[in-house]
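ok, trying the design again with the full structure, not the truncated one.
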């Protein structure tokens, strides 16, 4: 595999003519930091109002924030981190026992390809974790032995965290909590575990090409402190400096549509480091209203997006017909 031997030439299918990790990033001094939302303050009646406003403004202006004091069981987080690292350290043949199949999404392998057919400098494991009946355990690694249990417990924690966040988002948006929760309840939850190996020429490759997330809400956990994630704001890439123990949360395209454009789903990408690998655990929470992607009725008096069926939406989102800087939901705008 290309990643294994640091002395090998970088294969052409990873090399980006333009748009490698070297492209303009804001300098250290001028870099804006992501907003930081404090769950302890959201839960404290004395600070709630101000913190809800901060959460709302983060979702409206950045589409991203860091979440501290989130209350997720630290032992469950640690197990998930350890098992993810142990899985990626397995020999390739072990990882390939859950290899992604042609045309499939779940499993281990390379999942992301730019429109020019170039590969991202990463290996990934994708598994669907909810609804329970839809779990394909054949794609859940049996090594390390505690991995399945770790995924199961982490899945539950992430759903609970999602419901906590949605309640405060509903409050910011001025909608009934239940209306927003109902759009997410019982829907798909997908895990994306990513490993970005170091690369001797990071400027020639990219860990994940620029994209905006297609589901409702994304909850990202950095397993180590290697930098890499960059968020687009005002036409420039801002490196995210993860706070110890924080989650990085971002608005997906479906949440943008549900809020009728109030919250923003923004482009982000991952740059690769020359010396250090990076591992992340990403959980995507899906949403829809009676099988449709459309604005919540309470917010959609004048809908900004036309309603579309779920399967048509996913076909559109995954099709490689969009140019750089375009999102599928922009094609739904009225
Ligand atoms: O690993 C990261 O930092 C970002 C991953 C990501 O953007 C994704 O999985 O959609
Ligand atoms: Fe993403």
């Amino acid at each position: 595999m290309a990643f294994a031997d640091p002395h090998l030439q970088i294969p052409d299918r990873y090399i980006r003519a333009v748009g490698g990790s070297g492209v303009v990033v804001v300098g250290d001094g001028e870099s804006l930091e992501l907003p930081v939302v404090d769950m302890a303050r959201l839960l404290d009646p004395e600070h709630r109002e101000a913190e809800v406003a901060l959460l709302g403004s983060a979702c409206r202006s950045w589409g991203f924030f860091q979440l501290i004091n989130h209350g997720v069981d630290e032992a469950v987080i640690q197990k998930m981190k350890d098992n993810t690292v142990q899985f990626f350290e397995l020999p390739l043949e072990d990882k390939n026992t859950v290899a992604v199949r042609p045309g499939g999404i779940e499993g281990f392998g390379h999942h992301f390809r730019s429109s020019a057919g170039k590969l991202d400098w990463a290996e990934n494991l994708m598994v669907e974790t909810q609804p329970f009946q839809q779990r394909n355990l054949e794609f859940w690694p049996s090594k390390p032995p505690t991995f399945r249990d770790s995924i199961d417990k982490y899945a539950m924690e992430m759903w609970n965290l999602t419901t906590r966040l949605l309640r405060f988002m509903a409050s910011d948006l001025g909608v009934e909590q239940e209306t927003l929760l109902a759009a997410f309840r019982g829907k798909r939850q997908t895990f994306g575990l990513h490993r970005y190996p170091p690369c001797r020429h990071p400027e020639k490759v990219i860990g994940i090409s620029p994209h905006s997330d297609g589901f409702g809400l994304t909850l990202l956990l950095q397993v180590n402190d290697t930098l890499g994630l960059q968020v687009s704001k005002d036409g420039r890439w801002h490196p995210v400096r993860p706070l110890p123990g924080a989650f990085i949360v971002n608005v997906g395209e479906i949440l943008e549509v549900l809020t009728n454009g109030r919250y923003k789903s923004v482009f982000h990408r991952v740059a690769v480091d020359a010396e250090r690998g990076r591992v992340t655990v990403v959980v995507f929470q899906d949403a829809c209203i009676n099988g449709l992607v459309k604005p919540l009725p309470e917010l959609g008096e004048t809908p900004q997006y036309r309603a579309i069926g779920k399967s048509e939406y996913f076909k559109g989102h995954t099709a490689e017909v969009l140019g750089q800087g375009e999102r599928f939901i922009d094609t739904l705008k009225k």
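Keeping the full-length input from now on. The mean pLDDT is 91.
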